Amino acid sequence: MPFERDSLKSRFLSVDELQEWLRHELLNLDKEVNIRKEEATRFVGAYGRGELTPEEATDRYHLYQHRWFTPLDGHYAIKFDSDEALLAAIDRTRGRYVPLRELEQNRTRRSQKRENSGPETRGRD
Questions:
Q1: CA 20 to 30 Å from 67, out of 1, 57, 108, 114?
Q2: pLDDT tier at 123 (50, 70, 90 boundaries)?
Q3: Distances (CA, A) of 110 to 8, 30, 124
Q4: d(C-alpha 98, C-alpha 102), whole Å
């Protein structure tokens, strides 16, 4: 897996690694879309045919939402004026992205703080 790195020197992904990731990502997305469409169609169709009670249909709906949560829940992608507006809504839902460099800096600061603290303050970070 390209994201399992042992050293900081190898933290950057190569072109080959990203191309391999992209190949898998596209396969996964295709599979996910197919499964989601089949699952949603199956339980909504069953409810429409009277094969599910309202409680069962509602449970299936909530299971579907739980299983396939996306940051667009409660929104419809077609209602956004642009892809940028849609991505901004996703980012607001997901929260702030922290770049790798910042994560490493925070980790280094915490480590230095532990090293510089005396035994009486360790474990209080």
A1: 1
A2: low
A3: 17, 41, 11
A4: 6
